[in-house]
Amino acid sequence: MERYKILQELGDGTCGSVYKALNFETNEIVAIKKMKRKFYFWEECMNLREVKSLRKLNHPNIVKLKEIVQENNELFFIFEYMEYNLYQITRARQSPFSEAEIRNLMSQVLQGLSHMHKNGYFHRDLKPENLLVTNDIIKIADFGLSREVTSGPPYTDYVSTRWYRAPEVLLQSSSYTPAIDMWAIGAILAELFTMNPIFPGESETDQIYKICSVFGTPDWGMLREGMNLSRLNNISFPEIAPANLSIIIPNASSEALDLIRQLCSWDSLKRPTAEQALQHPFFNVGILVPRPLLDPPRHTRGPKLELSLWDFGTEPDDCFLGLTLAVKPSVSNLDMVHQVSSLDAREENLVFSSGFHNPSDHSGWWPLHSSNENRNDLSLGSSFPSSYMVNSQVSYPTIGFPQSGGGFDISSLQHSNMLDRQLMAFSSPCEARFFQ
Question: What is the set of active-site residues?
Fold first, then answer.
């Protein structure tokens, strides 16, 4: 620990104290958590839940454990340093968070929580103090009460701060699931809108009453499974109707209110998972839909060439590449097409189009050829009757031609070569397609 200089104390908890420190070797600011109990064996340190979980979890929204140091029977955790926690930021604000700010913060927390649950851990102590913030980045911290999802009962009665404790924990359920983390997320989400805890109970019984005051009295019979029945019998609240949540949280959208209701469901099975919560409309409002691609820019030089593959049959020799040569509509004499070899390729009088509409029997066709064929063998295909001119919309991954030599070679069809060939001298009634 001689590498670190303690700068200030950041907090003091039941298990340990947290300090801001400087690493002399790297000149990096870090957070050091010094455990209060003594540790005499390294294996004992490695078996701590906080160590086991943080060594397994690696996510941008989960605080990073950089190093573990055991010295003189004292244990130190070296974490990345985060400037504030969410509680501090909330108390320092002069105005409520905007919904966009809340959406950004909570989506990050849910992404970290989703990663945690998928990797077999749930936190059990989510609250604003355990959500660390630097600039616009928020990370889940303090895994001292974390537990493996696959672990079995008996579970600890006291988990999480009372205001964020799920009903099944308050009623001392013999077993609970990661859904208790989702309840805490719902309570934190509501608090970000109101800037105050939504369930500020002064005792566990009062905590249950505060929940009933917002979401109404549940059907206790449906909650009896796994609960401490003697404790449940001591609760004698009158029937309370659910409050109007839009009055309690007036600055929240209907999507936000709906998500809070789902997360704070009395029935843990009805709460969405972290991944499901991220799909809620609250996190998907205002998503930009990409605009359609603009038409390609008008080119001022060179003819326009468009190649289309037409499906004429299943045999390789039945597949042809069709080209239609068209002139501007103002040119009425189709015999002008025969003068193509004398035209400057840079002029815009010519447009090659794949729009075949009502072609005649005199249309010209070139068969596809592979690069291993002799390019000099390329010749004008015979004219086909109209029955061959079928525009197939089906795209086939392969059409049976040899794949060696890098596939099909259409370099011989470039306009510099095409304009020198008499092959191009043909006429066919067609619809000229001009590119913008």
Answer: 125
